[in-house]
Amino acid sequence: MRPILLGLCAALFFATTFVLNRSMETSGGSWIWSASLRFIFMIPFLLLIVVKRKNLRTLIEIMKEKPGAWLLWSFIGFGLFYAPLCFATVYSPGWLVAGTWQFTIIAGSLLAPLFYETVRTATGVTKMRGKIPVKGLLFSLIILAGIALMQIEHAGQLSAKEVWLGIIPVIIASFAYPLGNRKMMVIADGRLDVFQRVLGMTLASMPLWLFLSIYGVTTVGLPSANQIFQSLIVALFSGVIATVLFFKATDMVKDNMQQLASVEATQSMEVLFALVGEVLFLSIAFPSLMSWMGIMLVVIGMVLHSYITHAGLTAIPAIQPKSEQNGF
Known about the structure:
By secondary structure, this protein is mainly alpha-helical. It is built from 14 helices and 2 strands; from the N terminus they run H-H-H-H-H-H-E-E-H-H-H-H-H-H-H-H.
């Protein structure tokens, strides 16, 4: 029960990203600062953790091996993930962005053929190209149907251009996040823990955030004190606390596939937590019945996808590659 509670707490803290980003947008703050400040503020927190664990030297040495790869995949995994996600809040409420973001489950499955996994065969250990999990994708269609239902109501209130500007950036982020993170895990090759890898990717993505900051100063001016404070909260809650809670939960049940599936499925609650947060703190109207049906389909689809995926893993005597986690 404790891992489930930790997973739910992680989903709650992750949901603050969507609520506060929308809050900053509606109060006049720019998505440019919402994106860049979050990663700038994450550095001291992560640096403190890595230094305390005496792992900084190892991280620097590994980053020096392939600096170009670190810059490229960190730009994709963090930059093309979070900047579009913040941009989408200009056109969509946080709960809708959170719901559409669950498309990353489908995106992650579609990216499987781009990677290799180590498996045991009758003749020994070999590497095989990953395969798209067909059964998992069938349940992913439930998620897709839920996203479509949520977007239908929203589409009736905005122009076609505004609707697509609220959807396409999230779809881009959904592919960029698992692609960048998986590539970085291949490069790290199991030599870094989660805090080292996240710190390394944050540092390597810093050229983008500094460029965005300069662009922000010249176009929208400096961020307000309120936006700075809220960005700091996002960095602490989502970038540090939620990540620690989620990885703690998954680590507690890593040897039990059914329990691991349950913990991962708790992340579907991000949509509901984001919705409740916006209703309470931003006074948005409750979604329509159609949107509620969409939310429920997303949650059900994520739970079924997680269970069917791990059920498949237990049937194959393989050394599974460590996958990227749902949190960010």
